[in-house]
Each structure stands twice: as C-alpha cells, then as structure tokens.
C-alpha cells in the first residue's frame, strides 16, 4: 500500500489562467480523490486520496488526470479578458468570511453537501435583490413565466447539454410501477451511515427526467417550432437550478441546488444584443446605488474536459458571455453573481424558433444567482445593518 498523497508534474504546462478550470475538473476524475490541487505556477499536481491505493491503481489515476490536463491545457491560448465595468476597488465596510457567522446564527442550515436551508436574513436580502431584478424585468416589459424544476432528458439532449456539461447533471427518477417493487421498497428502504439509500437500481424506472440546470431553456422549448411576432419575446422567471459540483461544493459560493432569476430575450440579433447591453447599464446603476464592489468581464461556461478548449475559445471570440464578479474581501477573490449571455442563433436553430423572415431566432439572457449575490453582499457589508447602504437597512423587520 502507498501514501495517501500523489504528486506529479502535469504532462503539459497548465497556464495560470486555466488552473482553476482544470483543478475543478479533477474532482470528477476518480472517486478515490478527496482533494485535488494545482500549484500556483501550474507545474505540480497534488492529489489527496480517500484511502491508500496500490501502485498500479495510482498509475491509472495519474493517467486519467493527465488526460484532463492534455485535453484542457495543451495548446491553450489565453483569451483576451474584456472588462466592461470595474468597480472592484469600491471601499466596503467588512472583510470577514460570512459562512461561520451564518452557521452560528442558524441562518444557514446544511442539509447535505451543496444543499442549504436559508433563514430570514438571507431571505430578506434575496428579496431585496429580487425586487431590483424584477424592476429590471419591468423596465423591458418582460412577461412573467413559471417553469418546472424537472426537465425532460430529451430537451437537454436536443440542445447538446449532455456533451457539454455531463459532469454536473442531476437525474430524477421514481419507483417502477410494480406493486411488488413498491411494497419491497416501503418495507426495507433505509439509508446507511453515508446517507446512501439501500435500494437496488433495478427498482427504479428508466431515467427520462433531470433536475433543470438553467431557467431560460424552458422558455426556448415553449417556443420550439414557432414563428415569432416582429416584436420578439421578453420574459422573466426565477427557478431552482441544479449543477452537481462534486468536491467543489463549498459554502454558498458553490451549491448543487441554487436559485436563478433570469431576464430572457428572443428575437433578432440586434434586439438581443441591444437589450443585453441595456440590462447591463441598468444594473450598473443599481449596483452603484449600494456601492457594490464588482467588475463585469468576459467569461466562459465550465464545459467538460473534451469540449472545453473549443467551446471556451468560441464564447470568448464572439463575446458571448460576461460575468458580474463580486469582490469577496475575505479571500481577496471574486465570485460570479450573475451573467450577461448571448447564445447567437444556437437555440433558434436547434429548436426551430423562427423570426418572421424564416431565419432562426437569436436568444440571450441575464442571469443572477440569488444565494451568491446575498452571500457576496454579506461578505462586503457584514452583519451590522448600520454599516449597510441606507436603502437596504429597511429590509429587516
Ligand atoms: P451561468 O448561467 O452564468 O452559469 O449562471 C448564472 C449565475 O448562476 C451565476 O453567475 C451564479 O451567480 C449562479 N450560479 C451558477 N452556478 C452556481 C453554483 O454552483 N452555485 C451557486 N450558488 N450559484 C451558481
Ligand atoms: Zn439563461
């Protein structure tokens, strides 16, 4: 048997801008990995294992890690980061980590990894931001929608989600319609010490449904095979979203189950791009009024290993995604609390949504992560409401 830590050099140099992306993917390489770290220079990989592993098996783990490294880092070119707004150095009154205090106050109750119940303070903060997001939606006369938490597997297949983000999928199923199976489940179902249900997989129906990873997809599917009217569609909705993040799940910064508010635009290219830009300018005013410290910069989605290089380069070349990155003073870092997205005619083509002239519609969305924005606010302004922006002090009863 061998030590619990494996250390080796990456097969290809990992450029500094990719360290976070590659490191987060190492969580999915092997179930025996408890923690994966890449050195700040990108020249050393260190894996903590859950238990000792024979040498031959260590080689298997290392080979899988090197596959990730080569696929994501070899020949990667650093995209030019475009900064549209930079207010990161706005002075804010707090510098602590909100997590311990939130847990101590019972404001956060951890149900499982990446799954939390939120108390009144966080709920009031989220309501305050929700009112601003609804104000943004109203400024576009966006129509309200309500979408399910579940999404058919066929929907996600049709828009290539399985290939792009297989690692973060969450599946939903139910017991098969069979009295013997249901009776056996009812009589014997129990969880072991790890929280695993002792039920054989054959007892479950085939998977046709997943937990939805995004809000706007549901709107695009309601529009499938239709021709839009000339004024296009502007919609808003809030919903539960699910992205399984394995070892990367930590604090409110990264949840398996989180809520997203979106404002969604469907129309021609100019309509979508102009509204996306207008939304950014309107939110700039909202964030300015409370003295929020953040910047808006170009970004890419966390595509899975094999898809990453091509897709990320494509998003960057066509300026498809900008993130609102809030400052987290306690870790001298930033957290994406929202994004301004343009999908070109991707959904229009795949779902046959047409403009009046018969060409595929373009889509875009503005998305805010509600737990993250409340978390970032507390990280910057703390728990003493007298230190908060005056417009927010009234939110507490
Ligand atoms: P996007 O569609 O840009 O990936 O996600 C939109 C927003 O949802 C992000 O900017 C972020 O605020 C939120 N979000 C995405 N993934 C997570 C996550 O794992 N945890 C939490 N708490 N929020 C997330
Ligand atoms: Zn969206």
Helices and strands, with pairings:
Elements lengths: L4 E4 L10 H8 L6 E6 L6 E5 L5 H19 L9 E4 L11 H7 L3 E5 L2 E4 L1 H20 L3 E2 L5 E3 H6 L2 H4 L6 E2 L6 H10 L20 E3 L4 H7 L10 E10 L14 E11 L1 H22 L3 E5 L6 H13 L3 E8 L4 E10 L3 H6 L10 E8 H12 L8 H4 L4
Parallel strand pairs: 7-11
Antiparallel strand pairs: 1-3, 2-3, 4-13, 5-6, 8-10, 9-10, 11-12, 12-16, 13-14, 14-15, 15-16
Helix pairs in contact: 2-10, 4-12
Bound molecules: guanosine-5'-monophosphate and zinc ion (ZN).
- Which word captures the global form? globular
Can you name the CATH architecture of the largest domain? 2-Layer Sandwich
Structure ligands: guanosine-5'-monophosphate, zinc ion
Strand content: 15-25%
* Multimeric status of the protein: single chain
The Cα radius of gyration reads: 23 Å
The overall pLDDT, averaged over residues, is 95
How is the CATH topology of the largest domain named? BirA Bifunctional Protein, domain 2
For the largest beta-sheet, the strand count, sense and barrel status come to: 8 strands, mixed
Total number of strands: 16
- Total of DSSP H or I helical runs spanning 4+ residues: 13
Instruction: Return the domain count.
Output: 3
Low-confidence stretches: none
What CATH first level of the largest domain would be assigned? Alpha Beta
- How far the N terminus sits from the C terminus, by CA atoms, comes to 59 Å
